Amino acid sequence: MLMAIIKKRQLNEMKKEELINRLNELKLELAKEKSKIKIGGVPSNPGKLKEIRKTIARILTRVKKTE
């Protein structure tokens, strides 16, 4: 599993291509977790979904600032 938390300093150091790659990885991870829940399973860590969504929002904000 990937680590969902990315600190602000790490985001500022990353290039746009790295941010987009990380964004795609997080979206894929979020989709896997959501599908696991829809099948009827229990998420391994319920707080992880929230962190993934927040990190995606942080990355999108950072990408839009660089444009």
Task: Kindly report the average pLDDT value.
Answer: 88
Distinct helical segment count: 3
What is the makeup of the main sheet? none
The low-confidence runs, each spanning 5 or more residues with pLDDT under 50, are none
CATH architectural name: Orthogonal Bundle
What is the general shape?
elongated
CATH topology: Helix Hairpins
Share in helix = over 70%
Number of domains: 1
Radius of gyration, rounded?
A: 13 Å
The class by helix and strand makeup works out as mainly alpha
- Let me know the number of strands: 0
Succession of helices and strands: HHH
Provide the β-strand percentage band: under 5%
CATH class: Mainly Alpha
Report on the architecture of this protein:
- The chain is 76% helix and 0% strand.
- The protein is built from three helices and no strands.
- It has 67 residues and is an all-alpha fold.
Notable features of this structure?
Helix Hairpins, elongated, mainly alpha, 3 helices, about 70 residues
Summarize the structure.
By secondary structure, the protein is mainly alpha-helical. It is 76% helix and 0% strand. It is elongated, with a radius of gyration of 13 Å.
